[in-house]
Amino acid sequence: MDFELNDTQRLVQQTARDFAQKTILPVAAAIDKEERFPADVMRGLAELGLLAVNVPERLGGAEAGTVSYALAMMEVARTCASCAVTMAVTNMVGEVIARFGTPAQAEKYCRGLADGSLVAGAFALSEPEAGSDPGSMRTSARKVGDQWILDGQKQWITSGAHAGVMVVWARTGGPGTGGISCFLVEKGTKGLIIGKHEDKMGLRGSNTVGLAFDGCAVPESALLGELGGGFKIAMMALDGGRIGISSQAIGIASAALDEAVAYAKDRKQFGKPIAEFQAMQWQIADCRTELDAARLLCFRAAALKEAGKPHAKEASMSKVYSTEAAVRICNRSVQIHGGYGYTREFAAERHLRDVRVTTIYEGTSEIQRTVIARSVLR
Predict the structure, then answer these.
(1) Domains plus CATH for the chain?
(2) Furthest-apart CA atoms within the chain: distance in Å
(3) Closest C-alpha among 82, 71, 85, 79 to residue 8
(4) Mean pLDDT of successive 10-residue stretches along the chain, which has 378 residues
(5) Is residue 345 annotated as a catalytic residue, yes or no?
(6) In DSSP terms, which residues pair with 143 in a beta bridge?
(7) Is 0.70 topped by the overall pTM?
(8) For 231, which of 77, 177, 224, 279 could close a Cys bridge (C-beta 3.0–4.6 Å)?
(9) Given 306, 324, 362, 366, which residue is catalytic?
């Protein structure tokens, strides 16, 4: 078993770290405070190849592998979780199109996502009444001549107001998961209505909106993959996406732990730094142990995906453990900071707000446990 990174992985990690520390970190607090979509950051990530880390080179991607992608996500999330989730969804959309799209679709959209000209990608699966149960979705698509007409609503769509292309799931057949297909919808398409920006607890620089499709007409060529094959595409995309969210949570928790350690060494009570008290040391020890365990689970899932091996269970194990551990770590960081951790003077409170949603989106912790249990009991 080899725990060493290869040259490509080290290069991607260092590239992401340098950019994140020099360019993102100085503006991270402002992005959160102003609820500012990180357009400048996205352009910078595109220039470095970090919006298409696992997309083939022939389509403009870096083709650096899933482990490299996880490493890059950790570094970006360590400075700004809002930038990281925008990056994550864009990478996921590019991978989906590269894998399931026609040559023409892949050439057009993968390149546009990779070079930043499409700004971002969006993944439109969830609906107001269909979250953990995508088989109950109501958005429909009907064939009229050489077009598909989409009607319905989507909810919680990351980058929905900015994305140049969206992957949209809609019902083209009967009930259940077998009647769902997948479509590519460009920004500005007539009948696509962008809803209000959600006023969220965290990730406030990440744009999250609802979408409405009111007679939204897309060409016949907008169908992604096979008719009725949309559910399979969604599940395969989410397996990889869960590795990305695991990486995001690890990055946020890494920052929270770094700040807790620095504060504990500096803050003095009863005549000595609080880092010298056992109560603080045990909290920091638990944080470090859980963080390392999370990283190993994440890298295992990423390595399996990169090798083309089954990884659904491992991705779910990584996500449920990493995200829940990250919430605990960020919560401890606030506790170690004491009253200061509850103020915006320190980043600890932002990390706690940002990390909380990682146990919810791209499959709740409860769904991850269901996936794991089904695999174990099969």
Answers:
(1) 7-119 (1.10.540.10), 122-228 (2.40.110.10), 231-377 (1.20.140.10)
(2) 79
(3) 71
(4) 91 98 98 97 98 97 98 98 98 98 98 98 96 93 98 98 98 92 98 97 98 98 97 95 98 98 98 98 98 98 97 98 98 98 97 98 97 97
(5) no
(6) 148
(7) yes
(8) 177
(9) 362
